[in-house]
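Notebook entry, structure prediction.
Reason for the run: the old model in the group folder had no record of what sequence produced it. Starting over properly, with the input documented here first.
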Amino acid sequence: MTNDIISDSLTRIRNAAQRRLENTQLLFSKTVESIVKIFVEKGYVESYSVVEEGNKKFINVVLKYDDKGYTVINEIKRVSKPGRRVYKKSAEIKKFKNGYGTIIVSTSNGVVDNDQAHSMGVGGEVLCTIW
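New structure, fully documented this time:
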């Protein structure tokens, strides 16, 4: 059992992408599901589905590759950790990697990306970055 389910999920996606696997399976939580949903919207992941096996839930993630077989994800990193939380204001999360990357932020309006958080004018806990 892991203490930080978000970092476990990001590590599973990172490892599966490095090994060029077609899909990977994540432990279910609403936060992880909303993070993966943003990854699908931004084009880093092909698709996902929630699967129930008995009394446990999993998230099956289908990874995305370019035409040469390289992963679309260059870097995926956990920013705010259980031992050290990182909070940013809306002005501080405007752009990441000159617009090529995405910051996932947990706000009072739910888990959103940096563009939505800046347009709503809210800040929050920076969960992870991806580009």
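Summary: The mean pLDDT is 94.
The old model has been moved to the deprecated folder.
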